[in-house]
Specification:
- The complex is a heterodimer of chains A (about 400) and B (about 230).
- Chain A is built from 15 helices and 10 strands.
- Chain A has about 400 residues and is of the alpha+beta class.
- Chain A has a 6-stranded mixed barrel.
- In chain A, strand 2 and strand 3 form a beta hairpin.
- Helix content of chain B is about 35%, strand content about 25%.
- Chain B has 7 helices and 10 strands.
- Chain B starts with 5 loop residues before the first strand and ends with a strand.
- The chains are: A alpha+beta (about 400), B alpha/beta (about 230).
- At the A-B interface, helix 1, helix 12 and helix 15 of A face helix 2 and helix 3 of B.
Chain lengths: ~400, ~230
């Protein structure tokens, strides 16, 4: 088949102009590598954020906190509102479908006395679902159970840091500590957790888990008096599904507003927050993408420059070849072989370089390196678009060149 | 009587430069028989280059008829013209026009490649051709490693490799000193001696003196057409 022969002649021609081909390839390599690199960094940042959300309860988590009302309480009902109470929990459970977890918690600063120290710590009174909601992992023993709750059991679960603080390397399980004067038995210890946004970050975003002292909410409420005993400091919820969000989120707010008569609470909605983040992220995505595209253009300009620099030589060669009997397609194939090598080689090397760059940045910052099929597609697309622009069009032009004009070209 | 190799009648070439139309050729009548040895002469601007381009199928006439080997080529497509150049015509240029980055062998192989000949046959034929012009040992060299005379011999090998009916040379000695120029002309003479049709476009009377017939072009017309006494 003659086409193969013509293609192989194209390869011989590329070998003869190795320097020129190498420079053009370098242009494509730089362009593709920067596109892949920026995409990888963007995906990495995003994955890091998603990982954090996932490790702390997922996107379906919602939180309700009490908050001082911003309006003057005018009506009797507004004045009567005590903020979030266990009655709100019952109401939500009864009237807003779509939540699989509804877990109240109460926080108090209490004097904790152990064999080693006596100090004030924050103590959380909550329900069994709290562990599930916050993705707590039990290291030893167990979490608060339903029977603890009904019996107002004097049992506590410690975060890893607290357990070490109170008992050192000794086994904490079954030991007793005194919380606000009452003895509590250690029923479980949570596994140590950490999450750093990047290597230079010294703040453990999951550190709060290690510092937990958890008791049954009933055990804590039993010590309060009157209406106070019904107050909660936080309601954690988890939607049953992403679809449930549409109905449940506004229904939750409506219900609480109706019950309190005033907005003395704040709902923290992760799904909304993520949507918000993604919107903000789009600005960054746009900037990064623009950088990638500019680099790609620069790569293309490198290719174009080299094409221009060798234009005179090429025109004469096309003239000579045509005089010897080359048809348009012979010339076109020769040009296309060159641009295929430039873009193929440039695309692959650029992709590898870009992936390397993403990994290097990720390991430098101790973040996730994310490589998606979309990036490979983007690399191939950008390489072949450069190839099309700077390979295909010159090929067509050269193929159509009038041999007399080409031969005379100086 | 056999068909002439080339038969031009009433050939016009008009270049439309936009504002003014320039008539480069104004009615050329010319017949070239097989085995002829023709020198086309004329001052610059006479139209001899245009005539050469049309005879060489690099360009098409505006008006009139050009029969190559009995077939009208005046209105053929560029693809068909390329085939005719490949099969019928071997070009030799003033500045050799060898591809500078390719070896002599690859240069000589090109017409065979475009003619559709396969790899090994092509290489052996090209080598054989280089051997005939005394450059077999230089097959792997690039043109820049050769002298002017050697380059022109390589170009002649390339022109002849496809056994063209017509060898068409444009000032073939223009870039050579007198001695090497004479060597090249000796090759043309010898080729014509074994029946090769040769057309040389030149302004040099000494070169033209090698031909059997001298055609002078003035202002786009054939001014004189005379056979030289042998």
């Amino acid at each position: 088949m003659n086409l193969l022969e013509v293609i192989s002649d194209g390869f011989a021609d590329v070998r003869a102009h190795a320097g020129r081909t190498a420079l053009q390839t370098l242009g494509v390599v730089l362009g593709v590598a920067s596109v892949v690199g920026t995409m990888g960094m963007m995906a990495g940042e995003r994955a890091q954020a998603m990982k954090y959300w996932q490790e702390t309860g997922g996107v379906l988590k919602m939180m309700v906190y009490p908050q001082p009302a911003t309006v003057v309480r005018a009506t009797a009902r507004q004045q009567a509102s005590r903020g979030l109470t266990v009655d709100d929990i019952e109401a939500i459970r009864a009237r807003v479908p779509g939540f699989e977890l509804i877990e109240p918690s109460v926080r108090r600063r209490e004097l904790v006395r152990t064999a080693r120290a006596t100090k004030t710590y924050r103590v959380t009174g909550t329900t069994p679902g709290y562990a599930d909601l916050n993705e707590l992992i039990i290291g030893e023993g167990r979490f608060i159970t339903d029977s603890d709750l009904t019996a107002s059991e004097s049992v506590c679960v410690l975060g890893a840091d607290r357990a070490r603080e109170f008992f050192g390397t000794e086994d904490a399980l079954g030991k007793q500590i005194r919380i606000g004067g009452n003895l509590f038995r250690v029923g479980g210890v949570l596994r140590y957790r950490e999450f750093y946004w990047n290597r230079t970050d010294t703040w453990n975003a999951l550190g709060w888990i290690n510092e937990l002292i958890v008791v049954p909410i009933t055990a804590m409420q039993a010590r309060d008096v009157g209406a106070g005993s019904r107050k909660v400091d936080e309601i954690g919820l988890r939607l049953a599904s992403v679809e449930a969000h549409t109905e449940a989120a506004p229904a939750l707010k409506r219900l609480l507003l109706a019950r309190h008569g005033v907005e003395d609470f704040r709902i923290f909605d992760r799904k909304d927050r993520i949507a918000q983040m993604e919107q903000q992220g789009q600005v960054y995505n746009f900037t990064f993408t623009a950088c990638g595209i500019i680099s790609l253009l620069v790569g293309g300009i490198v290719v174009a420059n080299i094409l221009m620099a060798s234009f005179t030589e090429r025109m004469r060669e096309v003239g000579v070849r045509k005089a010897l009997g080359a048809k348009g397609w012979h010339i076109a194939v020769q040009f296309l072989v060159e641009s295929a090598i430039v873009t193929g080689l440039g695309g692959v090397v650029g992709l590898v370089l870009g992936i390397g760059f993403v990994h290097a940045i990720a390991s430098l910052l101790d973040q996730l390196a994310v490589l998606t099929p979309a990036m490979v597609v983007a690399a191939l697309l950008s390489a072949s678009s450069v190839g099309l622009f700077f390979g295909f069009f010159p090929a067509v032009k050269a193929a159509r060149l009038d041999p007399v004009v080409a031969l005379r070209y100086e | 009587m056999s068909t002439p190799l080339i038969e031009l009648s009433g050939l016009w070439k008009t270049y439309d430069t936009g504002e003014v139309a320039v008539d480069a050729l104004r009615g050329i009548d010319l017949v070239v028989e097989r085995g002829d040895y023709l020198a086309i002469m004329g001052p610059s601007g006479s139209g001899k280059s245009t005539l050469m381009h049309i005879i060489g199928c690099l360009d098409s006439p505006t008006k009139g008829s050009y029969r190559l080997d009995g077939a009208e080529v005046g209105a053929l497509s560029s693809g068909r013209l390329a085939e005719l150049r490949n099969r019928f015509i071997g070009f030799v240029f003033q500045n050799f026009n060898l591809l500078p980055r390719a070896s002599l062998l690859r240069n000589v192989e090109l017409p065979l490649l475009y003619g559709g000949m396969g790899g090994s046959e092509r290489t052996s034929k090209a080598l054989q051709m280089l051997d005939q012009v005394g450059l077999a040992d230089r097959a792997k060299h690039r043109p820049s490693q050769l002298s002017g005379g050697q380059r022109q011999r390589a170009a002649i090998a390339r022109a002849l490799v496809n056994e063209p009916a017509l060898l068409l040379a444009d000032e073939p000695t223009g870039n050579l000193d007198q001695t090497t120029g004479n060597e090249v002309m000796d090759i043309f003479d010898a080729l014509n001696g074994i029946g090769q049709t040769v057309i040389i476009v030149t302004h040099d009377p000494h070169i033209a003196a090698h031909a059997k017939r001298i055609v002078r072009i003035v202002d786009g017309r054939v001014a004189t057409d005379e056979a030289r006494a042998a």
